[in-house]
Amino acid sequence: MLIPFAFAVMYFGLTNNSKKVILYFGLCSIAIELFQFLQSYIASYFHSDVRRTDVDDIILNTIGGIIGVIAYKIWTKLYCFIQKNKHQAMKP
Description:
Largest sheet: none
Low-confidence stretches: none
Number of helices: 3
Strand content: under 5%
Structural class: mainly alpha
Distance between the termini: 46 Å
Helix content: over 70%
């Protein structure tokens, strides 16, 4: 879920600092799990079948943010390489 979101944050220049993006997505993942916990706590009064929160989700969502940042960095280097070769091919 967070891979394309992390890529978009870097691509649109909301922040260029990779460490900040990873921190944001770690906090975002914690917020998602906290919301899920509160939702399951409230739903437990009405249903016996509730979803459980798990620390693995926080870790995996944060890793997804890291993968998104890495994908952006690879894409940027590849794009610059293609543009450089494109301009060199146009020179006589």
